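Team,

Forwarding the record for the chain on the shared tracking sheet. I've put the sequence and predicted structure together so nobody has to dig through attachments.
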Amino acid sequence: MFAYIKGILEEKMSNYVVVETTGIGYKIFMSKNAILKIGELGEKVKIYTHYHVREDEISLYGFLTGEELKLFELLISVSGVGAKSAIAMLSNISPSEFIMCIVKDDITKLTKIPGIGKKSAQRIVLELKDKLKAEQEVSGAEETENAIEITDTLEEAISALQILGYNKKEIEKALQKFDYQSMPIEDIIRQGLKFLSK
């Protein structure tokens, strides 16, 4: 319903902010990391939003980047993961770290996030990997005009970025904008996100 809200930051609390625009104050729940980075009271801010509706509650959840928003929406699509749990996860892990956990089946790192047990971590990895496979089957083996050489490391990085909802064509186009050959996978993902989010 709301793609983003741009306005003046009026309040900062431990788990939400209030942003005023056209005389209306929007209460937006955010991760602790995002609240720390958002800026000072009185500044103009832009927050990407997710309009969350349940039987007993209507809430706005906010994110500083499109990647955080995509990750949140992926997390709440996993059975048993609610909006509050997803926000708690985003308070403890960056999108690039999270997708690395999915690609590498790193259950141990996910269980270090408060509120995530071993079974929840396994379910998150399994369901998100299944979604990725389904998306790859739908997109098929599309070739880009300037095809790039795919190594195992690059394949993992591409898979990780696909988890966040980018298609292979977009990813390969972004990869052509920087020298990824000598980079470790984590840096390829971070750089890829930088170019994909522009």
